[in-house]
Amino acid sequence: MPPASDIAIKTQLTLLLFSPKPFCSAFQKDLDRRETECHSSSQQHKAKFESICKEMGIQGSGNLMAELTALPQELPTIYADITGKLQDAACTAAIDYYAAFVQFSLEGGPVTVCPLLRYIAEHGNTSVYKWKTGQEPPPLPSAASS
User: Fold this and answer.
1) What is the pLDDT at residue 128?
2) Quick one: 126 exposed, middle or buried, by C-beta within 10 A (0-12, 13-18, 19+)?
3) DSSP of the chain, one letter per residue?
4) I want to staple 129 with a disulfide (CB 3.0 to 4.6 A). Which of 38, 65, 80, 137 is the partner?
5) What value does the mean pLDDT take over residues 108-130?
6) How big is the CA angle at 91 (ends 108 and 107), to the nearest 5 degrees?
7) How many CA atoms lie within 13 A of 138 on its CB side?
8) pLDDT digit string (tens) for 4-57?
9) In whole angstroms, what is the distance from residue 90 CA to residue 97 CA?
10) Has residue 144 got a pLDDT over 90?
11) How far apart are CA 74 and CA 96, in angstroms?
């Protein structure tokens, strides 16, 4: 027994070939409507794809895998820019002002605020391990020794 989809196709073909013209025009209108819906849906998905690519900072026109794997290579530049801005005198002054405001607001002793920002301003871009422990991270074992 043929699958149900084959039966449905055969039924539609039979109706199409041996039915009067009103059925053919209705069938054509239905096909035109479905084509319009598919085209509209295609345009919506294309626009959504383009907006996501723009949001991620890629063109999306070529090799997506290559574009996505190139994004992390931009991180050192971004981190250097952030570090430079945090080491600026205006930023450190803003952190000190905020610390004074918090201390005044809480009417207490010394308060530690923005420890990570202060650390980056003093030491630059270092590892989280060094920030937490104060020591350089141990070297990773090489692939040959494992």
Assistant:
1) 86
2) middle
3) ---HHHHHHHHHHHHHHHS-HHHHHHHHHHHHHHHHHHHHHHHHHHHHHHHHHHHHT---SS-HHHHHHHGGGGHHHHHHHHHHHHTSHHHHHHHHHHHHHHHHHHTSS-----HHHHHHHHH-S--HHHHHHSSPPPPPPPTTT-
4) 137
5) 86
6) 10
7) 3
8) 667 777 777 776 666 666 666 777 888 899 999 999 999 999 999 999 999 988
9) 10
10) no
11) 31
Which residues lie below 8 Å from residue 57, measured CB to CB, with a gap of 6+?
71
Other Cβ atoms within 10 Å of 120 Cβ, number: 20
Contact 27, 11 (CB under 8 A): no
For residues 25 and 31, give the distance between their C-alpha atoms in angstroms, rounded to a whole number. Answer: 10
List the one residue out of 139, 141, 83 whose CA is nearest residue 116.
Answer: 83
* Residue located via tokens 């530049």: 77
pLDDT in the model for residue 36: 93
pLDDT of residue 93: 93
